[in-house]
Amino acid sequence: MSEQEIHVGERGGGTIAAEPNAAPSRPQRIVLTLVAGFILLILGLFLSLITGIFPISYAEVLEVLFSSNPNPMLVEVVYHTRMPFALDMLLLGGCLAVSGTLLQLRTANRFASPTLTGLMPGAMVGLCVVLLLGMDIDSFGSMALCIAGAVFGGFIVFTLNKVRFIRGRSAGVHLFMIGFIIDVVLRSASGFIVLLGEYGEYQQEWAISQGGWGIREGSFTFWLALLTILVVCSVFAFPKQLSPLYIPFAIVLTAVTVWACGTIGYIGLIVPYFMRCMIGNRPRLLILGSVFWGGGLLMLAKVISAKINEPVGFPVTPVLACIGIPFLIFMVWIEWKKKLPA
């Protein structure tokens, strides 16, 4: 199978052709999409550098970046505080978008995303168990529990998805219904676990994980960057040979992002869907575009959330929901109108 062909998904021991939500690829549209994503990424990065409690103008940021003798205080703020945080957001957004892209390519379902396949809420349950047990949040054991939770959530969704209880509707609507129900159940389980524990020193981590306020401090950045580079390079080099590993890759990427900052919704759904509509089913280009658009969108959403209720800020998930919820309703409406033959 060539890179330009549509990947097949596996279900019930057989194979099904991917849904043709991706329009035929046109070189001009592909180039425009990738260039626009790169511009969005640069814009989000630049706005992240000027946004914060300490006001910095556009000219001052340019001075820090390009001047040979910048203000030492501005250098400290830009390079040691805001730049690392912005790059973390780029990594997180890119990871979630790549995870959703891998899921959609492998399952041939446009609703496949870290949230609706149970990976993200399952990893959230794993993180809640980590904090309940008082484990070191930066340990490999805590990461392993998040991965185990993602596997558990994904297993439930994919198993229930084999039972066709909605007759005459597309696979997308079916996965949406199953994924939405399991998401609610697992998030409720996370809330129940929260009620069981006395958090003490882990109060900040609980708030971040449940509310999406930001990124906790820790050593996760190195592992997140390493995993992202390994997955992206592997899929770039062997898109066809590694297609059976797309779902394990998505599980690990999703679990590590939850381990790093809690749950961030919608990016893993809307970015892959948009990229496949614009680019088609080309794994290499989809991965590259997902990093651009996912990272840029999350950085931009974080800038908007920081501007709301300054200087305290605002959770980033509700900002993303302003885009994600109407987009999801539109997707469900389009899919619901499609009736399958009896």
Automatic annotation (TrEMBL):
Its main location: membrane. It is a multi-pass membrane protein. The keyword Cell membrane applies. It is found in: Cell membrane. The keyword Membrane applies. InterPro entries: ABC_BtuC-like, ABC_transptr_permease_BtuC. The chain crosses the membrane at residues 30-59, 79-103, 115-134, 140-160, 172-196, 220-238, 245-273, 285-305, 312-334. Residues 1-10 have a biased composition (Basic and acidic residues). Keywords: Cell membrane, Membrane, Transmembrane, Transmembrane helix, Transport. SUPFAM superfamilies: ABC transporter involved in vitamin B12 uptake, BtuC (SSF81345). Residues 1-21 are annotated as: Disordered. Belongs to the binding-protein-dependent transport system permease family. FecCD subfamily. This is Iron complex transport system permease protein. It comes from Paenibacillus peoriae.
